[in-house]
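[stage:ingest] chain + small molecule (iron/sulfur cluster)
[stage:ingest] validated
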Amino acid sequence: MAKMGMVFDLKACIGCNACVVACKQENSLPDGVFFTRTLSYEHGTYPNTRRTYIPTICNQCEDAPCEKVCPSGATFTREDGIVMVDRDKCIGCSSCAVACPYDMRTMLDKDMFEKGLFGTGELTPFEKQGYERFTPGTSVKCDFCSQRVDAGLDPACVSTCPTNARIFGDLDDPNSAPSKLIRDRDGRQPLPEKGTKPKVYYVD
Ligand code: SF4
Ligand code: SF4
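[stage:predict] done
[stage:export] tokens:
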């Protein structure tokens, strides 16, 4: 069985945020909602300073706390390991948002759907088509662009990254690009002490 995962190469990321824009566009995300972000961290002492960019995303945990606490079965893991949310089953209780140790859940603000981006009650064409994908008040998160994965494509952030800092593939396949990177460059998972077994790794 496949186990889809992602590796972030911290040496390659230049913090351009092209991935963030691609994700917003692909998933028609409402104002203020992000499925991926790029954090930046400055280190060293002047004049010998350096900035490292750290992409973040839902870690598609193998032992996902968000799934364990979901009372309606809305959060589930599909066969290829991608953690999904069924918007028709989600009751908007926010338990997943509280349980996620990585703060990767967003509860969709009902007002956003009524007021629109400019607060006038009129939705832009982008909002109109985008909001059809969502149910106000429910929980959303990254699902590795499952619609693209099903079509044999990489997630939008991976396809867009100009420096190949995001590497996607099957972690169960020892010859996949992410598996090789994890092995060769000692890949590390975020907050391993939480016991969530993320399918996202970092190499530097
Ligand atoms: S990172 Fe958070 S939202 Fe994503 S699978 Fe893990 S616990 Fe769930
Ligand atoms: S908000 Fe929805 S997905 Fe999250 S725990 Fe509640 S029912 Fe499950």
